[in-house]
Design a protein that fits this description.
The complex is a heterodimer of chains A (166) and B (348).
Chain A (H helix, E strand, L loop, with lengths): L1 H20 L7 H21 L3 H25 L2 H6 L4 H25 L13 H9 L3 H22 L5
Helix pairs in contact in A: 1-2, 2-3
Chain B lengths: L1 H5 L2 H38 L15 H11 L10 H18 L8 E2 L2 E2 L8 H11 L1 H11 L2 H24 L1 H7 L4 H8 L7 H4 L1 H14 L11 H4 L9 H26 L17 H28 L5 H30 L1
Antiparallel strand pairs in B: 1-2
Helix pairs in contact in B: 2-13, 2-14, 3-13, 4-5, 4-6, 4-13, 6-7, 7-11, 7-15, 8-15, 11-13, 11-15, 13-14
Classes of the chains: A mainly alpha (166), B mainly alpha (348).
């Protein structure tokens, strides 16, 4: 059952992910965005299969529910006709392929290295309590650093979007 | 009932879950149908009219008449719409509300069965995740219609719902700080002690923020800017007719029911009442049914407040809406989190 679900979710995520970047039926950015939403939902399904319920829920809540809505918001305000007319560029295709291949090689290396330790229990179990405890003890510094980074980005956006500073 | 006991636990689980899900959806949809009628009756009373009274006694068959009308009307599709999204949007508007009720405990026990479809550990996160997907129905409807007013409605909806989701999410953090779990059944257990254990009394500020955000998330007045008949001629659903329009309509009410159920669970004690031993999981069948009844009664009470507010309040202006969400509710919710956390830390 679990294995079957894994293959279903993984296949759907791959298909939807492919449709995000190269949809043969439509060059519409909104369609791409909606496919990305579906990809994120299937990924959440994979997290749930790994018993990382918190991660699965947050994946839907943050990425599918908030980030992608903002994406859609921006895309809908753009001039979509120009985007629909644009053709696939060969250079872009080759470049994208190369990056994807490089990422695959990297990931393969990482997974290969991690495989022997698979017997050890995972550091982050699915429960929210364990995750919270880890975030505020062992990973406190990275956690705070990321928060500050986000804050900097936010202040930067406010600064850039203000036409004239008083 | 012998064949039921012979099944293995997995099969029993599947059967009971399916039955619970089916009953919950049927009950939800009937509540939705009669909430529409209640809305029209209450609004009529507030405006000193009689309201629908032709179909059946006191107009009780009005929902059936409305449903038949919606099914039989011509489903007109304007030539300029984006077909796929035009079909997809009404379904997406309806689905999230139905999915939300999966984790809400609507009673204690009937026999050996817990009256909740899925007793998730991250119950409330699941709810917020699904609720946050609800915006797609409206945004895509606005986009699919491919004309001005629906588009403006869709844009407004996405900005509004994102803004208030944040306030909503932050407002319930103090609740879970007090309870110590994200599981909605635990939240109800926490409130079972007595009337003043209800989180509405322990966390009045969180409740107020949650209510405001819930009104905004369900696009109800005073936050119904995505529809705004006067400016947008109905907003995102302008180009829709017949059953597709009815889907949006029902989706809004189903979302109201889901929001009310969540409010009852988080703040109003869920299926418990602090008197006559009704705060303990039921041992008998009658007690179990009483708990379901208490839960439904509370939900209906909150729904009446939803409707009442709609006919009493004017709509916010767009800048006031954003102002309230980002500059008032968000800081208040953050302060409440800080205060509650400090209080718990000092007490520990």
């Amino acid at each position: 059952m679990q294995a079957a679900l894994f293959y279903i979710f993984a296949a759907l995520a791959l298909v939807c992910g492919f449709l995000v970047v190269a949809n043969p039926f439509s060059r519409n950015p909104v369609t791409s965005a909606m496919c990305l939403v579906l990809t994120l939902v299937w990924l959440a399904g994979l997290f749930v299969l790994l018993e990382a319920f918190f991660l699965g829920a947050v994946q839907i809540l943050i990425y599918a529910g908030a980030v992608m809505v903002l994406f859609l918001f921006v895309i809908m305000l753009l001039d979509l006709r120009a985007e629909e007319r644009r053709r696939l560029k060969r250079l872009g295709l080759v470049g994208g392929g190369l990056v994807a291949a490089a990422l695959a090689v990297l990931l393969r290396g990482v997974i290969h290295e991690a495989a022997p330790a698979a017997a050890a229990p995972p550091a982050v179990e699915g429960t929210t309590e364990a995750l919270g405890r880890l975030l505020f003890t062992r990973y406190l510094l990275p956690f705070e650093a990321v928060s500050v980074l986000l804050l900097v980005a936010m202040v930067g956006v406010v600064l850039l979007s203000k036409k004239e500073l008083k | 009932m012998d064949w039921l006991n012979q099944l293995n636990p997995t099969q029993q689980f599947v059967i009971f879950s399916a039955v619970k899900a089916l009953v919950a959806v049927v009950v939800l949809l009937s509540i939705v149908a009669y909430t529409v009628l209640a809305e029209r009756k209450i609004c009529a009373a507030i405006q000193d009219r009689i309201g629908p009274n032709r179909a059946g006694p006191w107009g009780l068959l009005q929902p059936a008449a409305d449903a038949i009308k919606a099914f039989l009307k011509e489903d007109f599709i304007p030539a300029h719409v984006r077909k796929v999204y035009f079909w997809l949007a009404p379904a997406l508007a309806m689905t999230p509300a139905l999915l939300t009720i999966a984790v809400i405990p609507f009673g204690s026990q009937l026999g050996a069965q817990k009256m909740v479809i899925a007793d998730l550990n991250v119950g409330v996160l699941y709810t917020f995740g699904i609720v946050s997907l609800g915006v797609y129905g409206i945004v895509l409807a606005g986009y699919a219609a491919n004309s001005k007013y629906p588009f403006l409605g869709g844009i407004r909806a996405s900005a509004q719902m994102i803004s208030y989701e944040i306030a909503m999410g932050l407002s319930v953090i103090p609740v879970f700080l007090l309870v110590g779990s994200l599981n909605l059944s635990r939240v109800i257990e926490y409130q079972a002690g007595g009337l003043f254990d209800w989180l509405v009394f322990k966390q009045p500020l969180a409740f107020a923020i949650f209510v405001a955000a819930a009104f905004a998330e369900t696009n109800r007045l005073p936050f119904d800017l995505p529809e705004a008949e006067q400016e947008l001629a109905g907003g995102y659903n302008v180009e829709y007719s017949a059953i597709k329009f009815a889907m949006f309509f029902l989706g809004e009410y189903a979302n109201m029911v889901a929001a009310s159920a969540l409010m009852v669970t988080l703040f109003l004690g869920g299926w418990t009442l602090p008197w006559a031993g009704l705060n303990q999981p039921a041992a008998t069948l009658a007690g179990g049914l009483a708990h379901v009844g208490i839960f439904l009664a509370k939900v209906l009470g909150v729904l009446v407040v939803f409707i009442w507010v709609r006919w009493m309040w004017p709509r916010f202006r767009y800048d006031q809406l954003m102002d309230l969400g980002w500059k008032r509710l968000l800081p208040l919710a953050l302060a409440n989190v800080l205060f509650t956390a400090t209080f718990l830390w000092a007490r520990a």
